[in-house]
Amino acid sequence: MNVNKISDHVSYCGVNDRKTSLFESLWDLPNGVSYNSYIVRGSEASAIIDGSDAGHAAEFVNHISNALEGKAPDYLIINHIEPDHSGAIPMLKEKYPDIKIVCNAKTVDLLSGFYGIEDGIMVMADNDTLSLGDLTLRFILTPMVHWPETMFTYLEEEHILFSGDAFGCFGALNGAVIDEQMNTDIFIPEMYRYYACIVAKYGQFVDKAITKTKGLRIDYICSTHGPIWHSRRDEIGRLYYKMANWEAEPGVVIAYGSMYGNSTMLAEDIASRLAGLGIKEIRLHDVSHSPQSHILADIMRFKGLVIVSPTYNSEIFPPVASLATALSARCIKNRIIGIAGSYSWGSQAARKIRAMFTDKPVTLLEPSPEMKQARIDPIIKPADELAQNMASMLAACN
């Protein structure tokens, strides 16, 4: 049974998913994912905080029963009603029909729409509290992190923040649940990837949510995905703040598309020039082969980005266009972007990519080298200039 004690009054009751291959049917899960749930037991009442998906409902309900030693829980607190955290609600309600659901006003309509539940609901406003006897739960509304109804729950006496999807990451838990009990280094890249794929569009709201917690003492961050952050909680808080504000490390991601290898040659040439200029963190991604989630994660991590695309049917090569659209949808900012292209008879890709980022709060570098057919010699000078400008801009940011 995956029930682990966090403190005298709090237990972990989540489940691991090692079978789903695509999160939201979009993002690859090479290491699985966890759906984290918690039980808080006070002297007079107990509360479940967050749940699991429908596919693990039976396992989740068994964990709840085990943690409460067969007693019925009094409350279910919904920090976030997305189905990967609420799909087990119907089974939970069937086993515990008298359980009261605690949420905020924006959750009520979603609760009815997803599960037809309209009774037994307690609506909480920002900063409202719920007493469990000797324990107090405080609710902090954090709309659009990353749905309109999201909120945090704070256990005042034990300084535990139940943060919903915030501070979460991909990756199933391998036995232990608290960070000091495991090697959490493997989860940091998965945090970049989770944030870049799921949350990045809503950075301004993440920043506001973090600001609302600044006056709180927080000893544990209990997210709905990934480890419980205790010994690394301050580091994780800083990382999330950086991502919310699109702050980044010095380094360059080169994302390229290539049909016959000529654009690959151009991308490799730019990478070689950047390395020669002292750039040590360089990530090359063939957009036709690298999963988009991994490309987005690297772009979230590093300051520089070079996009290389052939012209395809007078348009941007489709996988490159998909990446550019994904970046635009995530409100990319504070990045230094270089663009290069290739074409056989009509130049279009580089110009059209540039147009996609012209109105964004990014720095677009000159020039935009373009290779005609496979003749790389004529663009050696502009490619070198692009690399020089990228290196200079990165140095100026340090």
Task: Specify the helix fraction band.
Answer: 25-40%
Question: Judging from the principal axes of the Cα atoms, what is the shape?
Answer: elongated
What's the assembly state of these chains?
single chain
Average predicted confidence as pLDDT:
96
Number of strands: 23
Radius of gyration: 24 Å
Count helical runs. 12
Report the structural category. Answer: alpha/beta
Question: What strand order characterises the main sheet?
Answer: 1-2-7-8-9-10-11
Which ranges are low-confidence, i.e. pLDDT below 50, for 5 or more consecutive residues? none
List the helices and strands and how they pair.
Blueprint: E1 4-5, E2 10-12, E3 15-17, E4 22-23, E5 27-28, E6 33-35, E7 38-41, E8 46-49, H1 57-67, E9 75-77, H2 83-86, H3 89-95, E10 100-104, H4 105-115, E11 121-124, E12 129-131, E13 136-141, E14 151-155, E15 160-164, H5 187-199, H6 203-212, E16 220-223, H7 233-244, E17 249-256, H8 262-276, E18 282-286, H9 292-301, E19 302-312, E20 315-316, H10 318-329, E21 336-343, H11 349-357, E22 363-364, E23 370-372, H12 380-397
Parallel strand pairs: 8-9, 9-10, 10-11, 15-16, 17-18, 17-19, 19-21, 21-22, 21-23
Antiparallel strand pairs: 1-2, 2-7, 3-6, 4-5, 7-8, 12-13, 13-14, 14-15, 19-20
